[in-house]
Amino acid sequence: MGEPLDHGFRPTSDTDTEQDEPAFQPLTPIEAQAWKARNPMISPWRIILAQAALGLLCALVTGLIAPGGNAAWSALYGAAMVVVPGSLLARGMAKRTDNPAAAAAGFMFWELVKIAVAVTMLVVAAKVVPDLSWPALLVTMVVCMKMGWMVLLLKRRPPVVTTT
């Protein structure tokens, strides 16, 4: 009962052992600076601004397609359901810490706040927006959420400089 389990892995030669794996090499300050230049960070506020702008555009288009204003207000509220909780998360995560555990705990806390605010906004939507149009609200909400991914995909990379 105290025998070790056999998982069937047997190195067939010396090249199959862990000794041949390359050792981790930390970047030099110059290499780290070059990596940062090639991979710039995107501000979460830029994503939230793009989501808000797209939400306004969706509300305008919805107002043109479905006159009367109810669908446009519903679409605007759908955009707010993405932008307001996202802003809370971005603001909460603005505090930097060197402790990885504290950073993970802070992220989990602010993500829970974001989810709670979004669910609360969804629950009270029918009371806040008169004659709520659920399709307009939900479509705008999904479009605004997807805008975050589009910003990441379309982020502008700095031009590659080559010297000869």
Write a short abstract of this structure.
The protein has a domain at 42-153.
Characterize the largest beta sheet: strand count, sense, and whether it forms a barrel.
none
Q: Total strand count, please?
A: 0
Alpha carbon gap, first and last residue: 67 Å
Count of DSSP H/I helices: 6
Residue stretches low in confidence (pLDDT < 50, at least 5 long) are none
Index terms:
63% helix; mainly alpha; 164 residues; single chain; 0% strand
Description:
The chain is an all-alpha fold. It has a domain at 42-153. The protein is 63% helix and 0% strand. It is built from six helices and no strands. The chain has helices at 29-38, 44-65, 70-92, 100-123, 125-128, 134-153. The termini are far apart. The model has no long low-confidence stretch (mean pLDDT 82).
Helix and strand layout, with pairings?
Elements: H1 29-38, H2 44-65, H3 70-92, H4 100-123, H5 125-128, H6 134-153
Helix pairs in contact: 2-3, 2-6, 3-4, 3-6
